[in-house]
Write a structure and sequence with these properties.
endopeptidase fold (from Nostoc punctiforme), 282 residues, alpha+beta, two-stranded parallel sheet, single chain
């Protein structure tokens, strides 16, 4: 025996032997499986043993993407701004064109109005000159024939136009100057009249304001007989206060009045249309 035979051993050979056998068996089984798999399918693909790593998005790439998006947005804003500016320019051009057309229209209208006013002024000046000439001729004829007419007519008043003076002369002269003018209902001159409009305008030349309508004029003043008429007296047809027509006695047994639309303003004998009454204002 060995001199160490009585020293106990710390190892456990049997336990380790079984473990080794187990490990050997497992390893052998794995190797067998691999061998069988290799023999059974040589055409099968080899298992992938390499890991593919995906690229990592770096901060630089993110910044580039953000910058590109911002640039695209800026381009869109620029296009929208340009579209708005183009629309505004087009609208401004339309407004300017319309304003120019309106200015041209107003200028043409003003030019036509000035031409019409000039022509009207010339026509009125010519009419006044002709009327003044006609009035002068009629006044002369009336003065020369008034006395003989008054003396030969038994029904006519004794007053003649040759004796007219002062305010009455102004009234008579104005009335005679309108002979030949048109009769227009509501007319107050200068070239067309109704009966009361003519009488009112004639008295205005003497500084006297008469009422506008014949009914009121027939009571404005003192009632006088038709046998004692004086030039400038107001003649009326109908009753006082409700007269339907008025005229001016101009002497020589005649009156001037705006009669109707057929005759216009005329100078006639009292016998042509005998008035109902008369009033004296002067």
């Amino acid at each position: 025996m060995s001199h160490t035979a009585h020293i106990p051993s710390h190892r456990k050979p049997r336990q380790r032997a079984s473990k080794s056998a187990l490990r050997a068996g497992v390893a052998g089984g794995v190797l067998s499986t691999i061998a069988v798999a290799g023999a059974a399918g040589p055409a099968q693909a080899e298992p992938v043993t390499q890991t593919i790593e995906m690229p990592t998005i770096t901060s630089g790439f993110s910044t580039a993407v953000a910058a590109s998006a911002q640039a695209t947005q800026q381009v869109a804003l620029d296009l929208e701004t340009q579209a708005d500016e183009d629309a505004a320019a087009e609208e401004a051009a339309k407004t300017a064109k319309k304003a120019h057309a309106e200015a041209v229209r107003k200028a043409e209208a003003k030019k036509k109005a000035e031409a019409a006013a000039k022509a009207r002024a010339e026509a009125e000046a010519k009419e006044r000159a002709e009327r003044a000439s006609r009035t002068s001729e009629r006044t002369t004829l009336s003065a020369s024939s008034g006395s003989s007419d008054a003396g030969s007519s038994a029904s006519a008043p004794s007053s003649s136009s040759s004796n007219v003076s002062g305010s009455a002369a102004s009234i008579v002269a104005f009335a005679k100057a309108q002979v030949g003018d048109a009769y227009v209902p509501g007319g107050t001159g200068p070239n067309s009249w109704d009966c009361s409009g003519l009488v009112q305008a004639a008295y205005r030349t003497a500084g006297i304001d008469l009422p506008r309508v014949s009914q009121s004029q027939s009571t404005f003043g003192t009632q006088v007989s038709l046998d004692s008429l004086q030039p400038g007296d107001i003649l009326y047809w109908g009753s006082a206060g409700s007269a339907y027509h008025v005229a001016i006695y101009v002497g020589g047994g005649e009156f001037v009045g705006a009669q109707n639309s057929n005759t216009g303003t005329v100078q006639r004998s009292l016998d042509y249309d005998r008035p109902t009454g008369a009033v004296r204002v002067l």
